[in-house]
Amino acid sequence: MLQKSSPFMKQANLINGEWVGADSGKTIDVINPATGLKIGTVPNSGKAETQRAINAAAEAFKTWRKTSVLERSKLMRKLHDAILDNQDALAELLTLEQGKSLAESKGEVGMSAAYILWYAEEARRTYGDIVPSPWADRRILVTKEPVGVIAAITPWNFPSSMLARKIGPALATGCTAVVKPATQTPYSGLVWGALCEEVGIPKGVVNILTGSASEIGGEITSNPLVRKITFTGSTEIGKILIKQAADTVKKVSMELGGNAPFIVFDDADVDRAVEGAMIAKFRNSGQTCVCTNRFLVQAGIYDSFVEKFATATAKLKVGDGLESGTQQGPLIDEKAVEKVEEFIADAKQKGGKVITGGKRHALGGSFFEPTVIGDAKADMLFTKEEIFGPVAPVYKFETEQEAIDLANDTQFGLASYFYTQDLGRVFRVSEGLKYGMVGVNEGMITTVEAPFGGVKESGLGKEGGHQGIEDYLDTKYVCVGGLGL
Ligand code: NAP
Q: Quick one: 29 exposed, middle or buried, by C-beta within 10 A (0-12, 13-18, 19+)?
């Protein structure tokens, strides 16, 4: 049975300005995680289609790179407006394939527009340098140039905004792009092609294709025409792509997995901490890379925090993201539910207490009850592994140093959060946390103006902020001599 669809649903690849199917004619079904019903199909493409998309991007680069920065910036402003003009429809499409609540989808689409506007503005500020020369008759110029064809691979949890962070800096700098969205949420990726066409971005500048991850990934990492890979997804796949990209020495940007700690000190404002905890844990039903994986709570405030947090968690409204009032949509698929169940069973067996939730939701399918687990211990699975679901383990600690050590005891280093009212502690702890991002008394900190990204095995490079454009540029040194001065 076919689920209600959306006018924005493009069920084809965009290669060199044409909407085409896979060479084999094969397709992949796309399923609404809230209903289990098929929404539509997308092409099951492979190596040959990827090569054509890369060739188209390489050809388009020859002219796109020469457009003036003002022209590109103007087109990007139009793209920003087109996204906002269609915000409701784009949000509906996103919820249909991803499951998150409509309110969250609208927020994500708004964020996509904000990234495009930000990069339209940053495009005009990719300054070079004129450096004082050690020679009287030579001048030193340092310029920035677009790297060339970039390839972007994105995950299913933010199918719109993760692409905005990659298409934005590519367009701004004069790069051209080959894009592969996640197979489970391809439509919010393909719609970027329709929007780019609508505002007049030339053919071949943005190419989008769906299909076999290993074939498409294999081609874009080995093809010498691609000069940069930008990936958002799991650390496991990120490592494979870094290795594959080594042979042709491409630039790589990696936004990978996380294991965010959320520390609540005795001196924190508990109500504010609970409010922050709800957003830092349950956004997108716990399926974000910056979602809290471990709540670390100081002994003196532990009981009060756990009680208020569990009460707020039990009130969350679970349902189809398209229904009004829904706060928690389904998990992306059955595998995600099984993983969460495994974590909970492991915690229970090792002495963890389920305070609220703990099982599949009565709605069935991949709906899961928002869950709080007390008495979490170091040997439980979620101490080391990313949960990616609506489960909140709460650990108890005694001292500030113990909290910092526990927080840093992971190979990840993406987002971290802590709550305190002590100014000295704000600096001690934020400097002690080995993370790319720190929220102090805030549970949601992502914004286009700030550099988003991790350290350690959470990634390489930044997206957003003035830093986000750098990876799309090569620095060139030009020495002008023989000036007869
Ligand atoms: P994933 O399994 O790594 O997939 C991400 C993308 O990589 C998808 O498009 C996937 O394609 C593709 N892919 C899979 N295998 C590939 C291969 N061999 N070669 C090339 N591409 C390949 O991650 P996910 O489950 O979609 O997303 C969740 C992960 O993303 C979590 O770990 C989360 O923390 C991370 N994430 C990080 C950030 C950040 O900014 N740091 C943001 C969001 C999410 P298919 O869909 O076709 O399999």
A: exposed
